[in-house]
Amino acid sequence: YISLPVLVLDLQSTMTHIQQIIKPTNMASTDHELQSSVDDFRLSSFIDRLDVMKRQEQSSIYHISDCLSAQSTRKASLSSSANTNADIWCRSQMVQWCYAVVDFVHFNRETVLSAMQLLDRFVSTNTSKSINVIADRRQYQLATMTALYLAIKIHEPQTLEIGMMVQLGKGAYASSDFYQMEFNMLSALKWHLHGPTATAYLEHLLPLLTLAYESRNDRGHLRNHARYYIELSTSDYDLVTVSPSKIAVAAIINSLRRLAVSTHAFLRIIKELKQYTGIDAAAKHILAIAQRMHKLQNIPKPYLAPRVKAFTQQPETCNRGAVKNGQIDSTEDVSKKSPPSQIRNVVSRRCSMDTSPTTFVANSA
Asked: What is the DSSP letter of 149?
């Protein structure tokens, strides 16, 4: 039992002590300490998110297997008419188609990474539905289109209607086909739809590496170059089974070389990358991944034209934009200026490419 006067005295003593602790010596030092605390909290949150993504990446739920190499080998021994299996060529064509769609309607290019990850994970589940998709390239195309439809619903503020997807497929698939494939994919993936992507790793790593740079402009250039390398890797099937964290680290290494940073800064960033990801960026297998990504620059890829164009523009402004003649037109935003029906017609004209079902099978040779 404590009397009331004693409680009051104790409270006054406590408040005096607190005031002595928080009483600022001067306003400048207080502002500095507050900003430092905010920065520490912000960096800590990035580190925590990286840990979560690493745990996701190591989980069997987000595992991706090589399911198409055997089909491509089998294709070489069969005539085009005898081969109906999906293969590496099919996947590369659909990557280009997905980028054409998201570029034209002003969506984020990372949505394509998420879509292809959903597709690759789905065909890796080894369920009866996923096996059927691998065995029939028309079904594989439907699965890719459905994966893009899902990724857009998850990540974008606007969605593409099923009717638009039907038009993009030139009527080869009905609305019910998309709904059924969506159900098959969700069931096989057990509704785990938010796996970490290489771009997500990049965006969480860059704030932790800012001490190695002198200006925001440098960080912007590093981000653009690294995204370019990540997009290069999207269509390269040999990198499909490589973890997103390693793709991100390899992209950063290539970007640092391209920007010609000093040796001291380069070694410091390699040390930071290992600290935050556990990946040794100087290891042979990481350097091999980086070298492969670098060589992919020599392979013409029309869907990368906007990213190449962006290197001459302001950093961090090239992620979105409608496409005209293979280049970004930042003045045109189809998704904001046009009603849904008009968007559907414009996108259908622009993006119903040679990968439509009627030619997708015929071009298997």
From this structure: H
